[in-house]
Amino acid sequence: MPFNEIKLRRPISEAQQQLTDKLLREVGDKKYSAVSFKLHEVLVTTPFSDISDIFTLMEEDFKALGKKQRGTFAELRSRSEAAALKKYEIRVRVSLGKIYDILAKTAGLSDEEKNSLMELECRLVEKYSVPRECVKQLYRRAKSADKRVIVAAESIYPTDTVKAILENCGYGSYDGLTVTSEMKDPTGESYYPDVLEKAGVKPDRLLHIGGDVAFDIELPIVRGSKALLIASPAALMDKSGRVRAYCEENDIFRYGGPERFALRCAFGLYSLYGFDIPQNKTALSDFCGDEYMMGFLTLGALSLVPGHDPGKEPGRSVLAALEKNEKCCAGRDDFIAMYEEYFGDISESSGREACEVPLDFVVKCCTSADRKFLEEHISAKVFKKWSSSVKDPEIAINTGIKPKQNAASRLADKMFPPGTKVRSITDSILAKGHKKLR
Fold this sequence. Notes:
Elements: H1 14-28, E1 34-38, E2 44-45, H2 53-56, H3 59-63, H4 73-88, H5 96-107, H6 111-128, E3 130-131, H7 133-144, E4 148-153, H8 159-168, E5 176-179, H9 191-199, E6 206-210, H10 213-222, E7 226-229, H11 233-240, H12 243-250, H13 261-275, H14 291-302, H15 315-324, H16 326-343, H17 357-365, H18 368-372, H19 380-389, H20 407-415, H21 421-437
Parallel strand pairs: 1-4, 1-6, 4-5, 6-7
Antiparallel strand pairs: 2-3
Helix pairs in contact: 1-7, 4-5, 5-6, 6-8, 10-20, 11-13, 13-14, 14-16, 14-17
């Protein structure tokens, strides 16, 4: 069943509907003759909290090769990609083949073994790539308005895999496709000129839609095009509340391990559920002021560990109140339907530890606005005691340490040095864009 055919009970918010309508009007504007879309995290995404979770699904296949390695295959595969990025400096120069050349050398794989694992990864990426329904509406609007549609795949995967992803996700009628992994000698900005060439229009007649500030906003703008920034569902989810950070901080050394696979999948589905269409954080709420979303993550994740008992008050009363709230239960049912659709063929015993942690967060750290959803279903005495016991989670949201720049950030500083007039103008445009689109 395709994602858009799953009958979800949660209605989108008024703000999300207004944003969708605004984006549709912009894409359909007659001033544009062509529209280009970034592929990953814009046209398509995955139901994981991080794409590296796909590597977890390859663990048994790697073990069957009998190679002795420290750590998991997911760790080996991630290290190999990091090494390739360091070697080739810019992401668009890295391909799946280059990553697996490093992996094969590290793990002592034969060419046949290397190619087998590469093919498996491509099949899994094809299987788990799903359309972002918000952007799919924009894609259809561009086609219905007779605009040329170009897909920019800044991807490590080969063209055949990219085409299969597009076909599986319902994007079969594009007019041009750029796949950076197969471009000759790509540089940090080379894919956009290729997109512009395939569009066959003057720069100011092209609207580009992407999720990366340096590559999808600054480059098009400096070349005379228009651009819209649509952040990934996972990035929007991370900024919407404290639950994900709470899980990571309280389980930082094991959150990325295979034993917590289901918990990470729960967050992946939550990002699709609430943030496919961008929405802002709601004050005094960790669930965007939405009972459906609260039930989706807490009761939904808990459904993966049936029979869980919070043990004592106020945990038991909070869980009972969640289960009495109709919208929270509708969110839980949406989670169950989505989890079955995407992960129903994965063993029930694999990686389901800590799925009670989102509920634990609500019991210990629930904000005043979110507690209101449950107040009528909890006795006044327990509710008062619960409210007085709630504390802010001990999470490091801002460490004060300057983050290490990636290649895109370094490119942005190189193209538009901080303090220059062009950078100031661009930052102003981006600030307005962020306010409008998030």
